[in-house]
Amino acid sequence: MLEAVARRWWQQRTVDTQRTFTTFLAMLLLIALAAVLSRGVFIKPTNLLNLVFQNAILGVISFGQLLVILSAGIDLSVGSMLGLSTVLLMIFQFLGLPVALLLTVTIPAVFGAVNGYFVAQRRLPAFVVTLAMMLFVYSLAQVISGGAGIYSGLNGAPLSPVLVSFNRRGLLGVPLPAVVWLLVLAGMALFLRLRLGHFVFAVGGNERAAVFSGVPVTMVRFLAYLGASVLASVGGILAVARVGEGHPAAGQTYLLDSIAAVTIGGASLSGGEGTMIGTLLGVLILGTLNNILNLLNVSPMMQPAVKGVVILLAVYLNGRREQR
Amino acid sequence: MSTDRGERQVLPRLNDYGAALVLLCLVAYGVFRVPNFLSEMNLSAILYQYSIIGLLALGQLLVVLTAGIDLSQGALLALTSITTALVMVRHGPVMGVLAGLAVPAGVGVVSGLLVSRLRMPPFLVTLGTMGIARGMAMRIANARPVPIHNEAFISFGSGTLIHVPVSTFLWVGASIGLAFFLTRRPFGRHVYAVGSSEESSRLSGVSVASVKLAVYVLSAFLCAVGGVIWTSRLGSGSPVGGQNYELESIAAVVVGGASLFGGKGRVDGVVAGVLIFGVINSVLNLSRISPFWQGMIKGAVVLLAVALTQVRSGAAIRAPEGMARA
Q: What is the domain extent for residue B93?
């Protein structure tokens, strides 16, 4: 009886919901495993708080990557974009925090718009356009910073005290990086429920159908790349608040991790399928994994291999198959 | 309307020879504006490094032609390097090279099976095997380089024949061989067919799964050949080498006019694509441009080359005239 009810409930869900549910179970399993293996250290509040700090940046960036992947594209420049943002935020400290923040978001947004122009308007392959942008932006960040980490703005202006104490403060007991993560989550959730948000799925799902239904395909694609760059710069701001340094290479690990998080969360690289909750779970799974590998003193050498196996497993379990 | 027809005639040619055109311009710039560009030392430096990327790019082309992608190439190069060095220390150069060729091919079999039998997406499969290969290389080497003391093996990598590096002969040979197979043999036609339409290939009796398996194994094998040369040049096995080589090989393939959606791409274009990267690097270095600036120039050139070679790749779908917007 119960089984029949459960089965009917399951069959009535959409594919996206089913995948999200599977991912959720996988995460619960991983957390249980982590708690047991680490003899309870994993679920201590300090460690969980650490988990949030460590993953707020990846969490924010992955939402940008999700947006682009939903539109059947990919953005390889998010990591470099994050690096550039940390450098810009540091350099512009002498202008005061509000102006510095504004420039930190708008300059990467311009590069995101260039990505969008070439992919959406000129219809060049996203992989190569954003690869070129990745090289370009990284190099720009190196030129500005002189290739090394920088710890103060022009004229030696120190990092604004607001950013220095950012990680130690909270809103209603929630640490500020997590608040930013939640705000981005809420913003994305709202956006994807707007008409424009539905268009993103439409463009990625079936471009021809979208065009014939009057969806402004070019505009939607363009906005996805713009959004990814803006979110990468928000990630950059969080990174500066976390380590107090601007560095061109600050975002290097985030590129592959963001793609991994989105796909572990059940999104399809051919576009049109994927959920925010899935991506959120993907980030938490990757974060939990990194966290237990460290807690268990697994050598950092083996971490790429473990991540590789988890990606393969997740893709296999999600039942994601290519069809043509 | 007349411009439309004109475009259709001119653009395909531009598409086919765009990479060669860009390469020609870059070489001309190098010859006339950059001192020492034509020196033997510089030319052989380009050939040494880019023969290896060139071998990777040939494998990448095969995979891309079937609408796949191989992100594990750089990691496989490192895995080859470390396997070759470690086995060579104990069992001599022949066993070392054989093991170096076999282990990555094994990883290629895994990628190929996951893509062809389980129909998992190539991007994610090779992202996974990339991590696994890199992790394996780091683990067995304990994250340290392994020195090689075999003189014969080391001299092979830096050896030349009539002033041309031996590795270049391997690259040229592999390119000609692949071009022959792609254009003149059934296997080549099957590769293009699978990339153009899997469904029609299957219905015409092409074994889609075997073709897909074969391209991933071949790609891994070509990485291994590149890795052996690379190790021999370096004189040691390194687990951290080859980082981002896969991105360079993908870029070379796309700049060479191939489509990442499969079914379109040629060996000559890819060779030109690889040489474009070699010449840019060499011109930038010889002109003493700071490495910090080089990425910007490279990024701009890649974008330009892609804009030239992929002109028609994504002709916009147009809605009927006068249709209302949503």
A: 13-309
Instruction: Tell me what ipTM this predicted complex has.
Output: 0.83
Neighbours of A36 (CB within 10 A): 11
**pTM for the structure as a whole:** 0.87
Tell me if A128 is assigned to some domain: yes
Residue A109: inside a domain: yes
Which residues of A are less than 8 Å from B255 in CB distance? 128
Q: Is there a contact between B318 and B24 (Cβ–Cβ < 8 Å)? A: no
Is B314 domain-assigned?
no
Q: How many domains are contained in chain A?
A: 1
A306 vs B contacts (CB less than 8 Å)? 131, 135
Q: Which residues of B touch A216 (CB under 8 A)?
A: 325-326
Instruction: Kindly state whether residue A294 falls inside one of the protein's structural domains.
Output: no
pLDDT digits (tens), chain A, 324 positions? 788 888 888 888 877 787 888 888 888 888 888 888 888 888 888 888 778 878 999 999 999 999 999 999 999 999 999 999 999 999 999 898 999 999 999 999 999 999 999 999 988 889 889 999 999 999 999 999 988 888 888 877 888 888 888 777 777 777 888 889 999 999 999 998 898 889 999 999 888 899 898 889 999 999 999 999 999 999 999 999 988 899 999 988 898 889 989 988 888 888 888 889 989 999 998 888 888 888 788 877 888 888 888 888 888 877 655 544
Domain range for A102: 61-252
Q: Which two tokens stand for residue A207?
A: 């471009």
Cβ pairs A/B, distance under 8 A: 176
* Residue appearing with tokens 């599977």: A22
B69 occurs within a structural domain? yes
Q: Are strands A174-175 and B160-161 parallel, antiparallel or unpaired?
A: unpaired
Dist. CA B267–CA A40, nearest whole Å: 57
* CA atoms of B77 and B233, how far apart (whole Å): 13
Burial of residue B309, with CB atoms counted within 10 A of its CB: 0-12 exposed, 13-18 middle, 19 or more buried: buried
Asked, for residue B326, whether it belongs to a domain, the answer is: no
Collapse the DSSP code of B234 into the 3-class scheme (helix H, G, I; strand E, B; otherwise coil) and give the result. Answer: helix
**Any domain includes A53:** no
Written as six digits, the tokens of A189 are 């959730």
